[in-house]
Amino acid sequence: MSTLAVISAGLGQPSSTRLLADRLAAATAGALAEGAAVETVELRDHAHAIVDATLTGFPSGAFRAAVETVTGADGLIAVTPVFNASYSGLFKTFFDVLDRDSMEGKPVLLGATGGTERHSLAIDYAMRPLLAYLRTNVVPTGVYAASEDWGSAETGLPDRIARAGAELAALMEARPAPAKDDPYENPVPFERLLAGR
């Protein structure tokens, strides 16, 4: 079974950002042949630890486990509210903490929420370049949800969510499993160890 990490950078509770993240996760898990174990990371719960990690260079405690969840997952859904025409500072700071090589090749689905549809391009001009820098594999369909999208079936939000989830599932299933080195595959002969060579 695949593992799917979900990052929600919403600041409120309840949060439309978390609602979108959960719907994207459900669509992705439903499109995977064997489903997925979904683990959600609420960045607001780690806000202080994220700042500490930017100062020290090392994530610690529960935040370290959150980082390992994201970097170790087979796929990632990253959703942020749009503030001042771009992703939130908390969202950006989380990715600043990650080791640049830790995300290479990871399939990623991007989502964003905002008050009006005027900010819908933030996914393409702000979020995509950030994830491209980390050398991830971002799906073509990003999902933006404005306030009006939640109250009407005519906005096409469910269709966009389903399409993006299917795209992420396809990338996750096509990605080769990472090679795991076995440290015991070629052991040093005991005689050589005794001889000190």
Enumerate the spans where pLDDT stays under 50 for 5 or more consecutive residues: none
CATH structural architecture: 3-Layer(aba) Sandwich
If you compute it from the alpha carbons, what radius of gyration comes out, rounded to the nearest whole angstrom?
Answer: 19 Å
The H/E string reads EHEHHEEHEHEEHH
Q: How much strand content do the residues show?
A: 15-25%
Based on CA inertia axes, which overall geometry fits? globular
Fourth-level CATH superfamily:
Flavodoxin domain
- How many individual domains? 1
- CATH secondary-structure class: Alpha Beta
Distance between the first and last residues' Cα = 43 Å
Largest sheet: 7 strands, mixed
Protein name: FMN reductase
Enzyme class: oxidoreductase
Organism: Actinomadura monticuli
EC number: 1.5.1.-
